[in-house]
Structure formats: C-alpha cells, structure tokens
TrEMBL record:
GO cellular component labels: cytosol
Residues given in the record as Mg(2+) binding sites: 13, 15, 174
Domain of life: Bacteria
Name used for this protein in its record: Phosphoglycolate phosphatase
Family: Belongs to the HAD-like hydrolase superfamily. CbbY/CbbZ/Gph/YieH family.
Lineage of source species: Bacteria, Pseudomonadati, Pseudomonadota, Alphaproteobacteria, Rhodobacterales
This enzyme's EC code(s): 3.1.3.18
Record keywords, A-Z: Carbohydrate metabolism, Hydrolase, Magnesium, Metal-binding
Length: 227
C-alpha cells in the first residue's frame, strides 16, 4: 500500500537569505555612530558584522570603533529605535516571492527562524506582503537562545508539526550561523550563496547550494525526500 506523506516543513533564515537588509542596517548603524562623533563604517564592514543578532552586531561595532563597553546597552537601544521600522533600503532577492508561492501551493508548511529581532522581522515581512505565507516566525528575541543554538530552529519545526527533537524538514540560509544551526538540529541545509557568509561555499556543509530562488522548489523537493 502506498503511503502519501505530507510535505516536510521548510524554514528560512531572513537577512541575507530572503532579503538584502544590510543597506538599512548600515544606515541605522551610522546614524547612531554620528551621535557619538564616530567615523561611519562602510557597507562592507557592516555586512561582515551581520548574522549573530543585534547584540553581537554592536559588540563587533564597538570592537571596531573603540566605543566603551559600558555604552553597549544605550547603543543597542538607540539603534533599535531606528531599526524597528527600517525597510526603505531593504530588497527581496530576485524570485523569492515566486519561489515561496510555489512551495506554499505545493503544501509545504513555511516558517522563519532568524536572529533578527521579532519586531523588525514582522515589519519587513509585512512591508513585502509575504507575512501570510509563514505559519511561524521565530525571531532573535523569541527565545533566550539564538542561532547557532538549535533551540529556535527546533521551536519553529515544532510549531509546524514536526518532532522538536528529531525534526524532518529543510532549513534554508546563507551564513555560517545557519549552517551550524542546521547541523545542530539534524536537518538538511540549503545554502543561498548571494548572502552574507564569509566562508567559501566548498568549505561549508550543505545539501545543495544555489544563487537563484527560481531553482529552490526543486532543491527543496530533493532535500525533503531524504529529510
């Protein structure tokens, strides 16, 4: 007797995976630095600091600029007032909307697991009109843990009906944080190569790598078949 299995959950990172948000992050960072008479950072510098969440972002910025450690909380608060609704310079990567639509139409439960705080995450998903495609959204402040700890990704899979301890599904991301999180969770990892990673593709563990979201639905089908 043939058994028809429901499509496996597919969970996405956000920054550097679905969206290029560094221009907005860069603008917000430099707005804060100007208040402290610190020379602005370049776009590439800020891009290199993104991925571990806002707290780690500002730890790296302070290390690069010499800002005092005791100012950290105020710097983060000042940044967040600007970053919460920053969407003007952010762009979806090409073919993201179409790929998400194909996966949703094929019955794949979709989710987000990002180190971006939940408020800005929801703002940007609403801004691009794709929030309704995701049944669960886990932000960097949704749990005490952040990626690469597996807890946020496990929580996202559990919310989509998977076993939280041994989930069967696929994670799509762009960075070393995402690669390690997928490995820690025990799920196949699809690597988007146009994001913010610093490590060469061939040195990263992944089920498949891609640079165009038009190819993603087929890659998801192949990865989900072995998940």
């Amino acid at each position: 007797m043939n058994v028809c299995l429901a499509p496996r959950p597919v969970i996405f990172d956000l920054d550097g995976t679905l969206i290029d948000s560094v221009p907005d992050i860069h603008a917000c960072v430099n707005a804060v630095l100007r208040l402290h008479n610190i020379r602005p950072l370049t776009l590439d510098q800020v891009r290199g600091f993104v991925g571990g969440g806002v707290d780690l972002l500002w730890q790296k910025i302070s290390g690069a600029t010499g800002l005092p450690r005791e100012a950290h909380r105020d710097l983060v608060a000042s940044f967040m007032t600007r970053y919460h609704g920053a969407t003007n310079l952010t762009r979806l990567y090409p073919h993201v909307t179409e790929a998400l639509g194909v996966l949703a139409d094929r019955g794949y439960p979709l989710g987000i697991c990002t180190n971006k705080p939940l408020g800005p995450t929801q703002k940007v998903l609403d801004h691009f009109g794709i929030a309704q495609l995701f049944r669960v959204v886990i932000g960097g402040d949704s749990l005490p843990q952040r990626k690469p700890d597996p807890a946020p990704l496990r929580a996202a899979f559990a919310a989509l009906g998977a076993d939280s301890e041994q989930p069967r599904g696929v994670y799509v991301g762009d960075s070393e944080f995402d690669e390690e999180c997928a490995r820690n969770t025990g799920v196949p990892f699809l690597l988007f190569t146009r994001g913010y990673r610093k490590t060469p593709v061939e040195q990263m563990t992944h089920q498949a790598a891609f640079d165009d979201f038009a190819t993603l639905p087929l890659l998801v089908e192949e990865a989900a078949a072995i998940a």
